[in-house]
Amino acid sequence: MSKRDYYDVLGVDKGADKNDIKRAYRKLAMKYHPDRNPDDEKAAAAFREVTEAYEILADEEKRARYDQYGHAGVDDQMGGFGAGGFQNSHAYQDFGDLFGSVFGDAFGFGGGGGQQHNQGADLRYNLTITLEEAAKGKEVELEIPKHEHCDTCSGSGARPGTNPVPCSTCGGHGQVQMQQGFFAVRRTCPSCQGMGKKIESPCVSCGGTGRKKVKKRLKVKIPAGVYDGAQVRVAGEGEAGTQGGASGDLFIVVHIKEHAIFERDGADLHCEMPITFPQATLGAEVDAPTLEGKVKIRIPAGTESGRVFRLRGHGVKDVRVHQKGDLFVRVQIAVPKKLTARQEELLKAFAKETGDEVYPERSSFLGKAKKLWDDLAGEN
């Protein structure tokens, strides 16, 4: 019986790329896999057929020979597709991922290999500081509840004078091999839970876990210029591993309080500062706030509300380039809310004396508005 065209077997065009071929193979492999179709010879034959097709089309060299010569060009490359029949092939590698993700839940194991790690978990600590502390840096003292290695057994979990022994079920590998149809699949050893060793005489202090609960005090340096959401890593200060495993790390997540004056943008700071009408009109020298104290700003005569003054080097240190940003001060002209009778009298006299001509922006606006009103009146 002649073989079907491999492209027809996978249901793809001859111009299909590798991703299309892989998706088609995975879909058909899930459909026809023998563990999903027990005692179904037709499904088993279809599974072998799609696997053979994928083995050729997933390999560029084999695919080129197949495209040129057909089955005659690749028949000598094909071995049997029984147990181990396509080890080290594309189909074998890709089906390992497929089997772990699709059939893993059904059989209680995944496709990963190697002994499980007994390293301790990482810990997270949320730290809230002020903008001033973030700008200058700060050393903080923290109390961290965590597990440390047991002093009695030095973290091994075994009674002093004894040692853990290799697991007899897996021979110390942490995994056992199981046969699923014609596949040999590894799974976590059920006896040692992947540790590869067992404790025959547990430590009485920690019950064989190799760990004890403590509250540890740590001093940690928060670097100057740290930004909101940054993580400061303290290596080895996480949870201790079980049975002597390495400790995880401590990650301090920095949160910065909202400031009453400044808003931060990277290494730069921004603030709004009110000035009086006489200061804006006549010009003045005023004090502006910074994180280091106050600095003098010269307000030119005729300054408009919203003008921004840049103070170089008065921002926050950038932790990446170790340079300070700038401070941008936006001035806003404050309007007096309470006036004495004398002040009100003087202000009215000033308004009467000056008129709109001393306000060029207002005069320009009123001219445009008058033209608009005249045009509307003409239309009516």
The CATH architecture of the largest domain can be named as Sandwich
Characterize the biggest β-sheet. Answer: 4 strands, mixed
User: Main sheet: which strands, in order across?
Assistant: 10-11-15-14
**How many distinct folded domains?**
5
How many strands? 15
In DSSP terms, counting alpha (H) and pi (I) runs of 4 or more, how many helices?
9
What's the order of the H and E elements?
HHHHHEHEEEEEEEEEEHEEEEHH
Instruction: Look at the structure and give the CATH class of the largest domain.
Output: Mainly Beta
Q: Could you say what the CATH topology of the largest domain is called?
A: HSP40/DNAj peptide-binding domain
Rg, please? 38 Å
Strand content: 15-25%
pLDDT below 50 for ≥5 consecutive residues: which ranges? 79-89, 99-116
Return the average pLDDT rounded to an integer.
83
- CATH superfamily membership of the largest domain: Urease metallochaperone UreE, N-terminal domain
- The percent of residues in helical segments reads 25-40%
> What does the oligomeric state look like here?
single chain
Q: What distance lies between the first and last C-alpha atoms, to the nearest angstrom?
A: 94 Å
The helix/strand class is alpha+beta
**Global shape:** flat
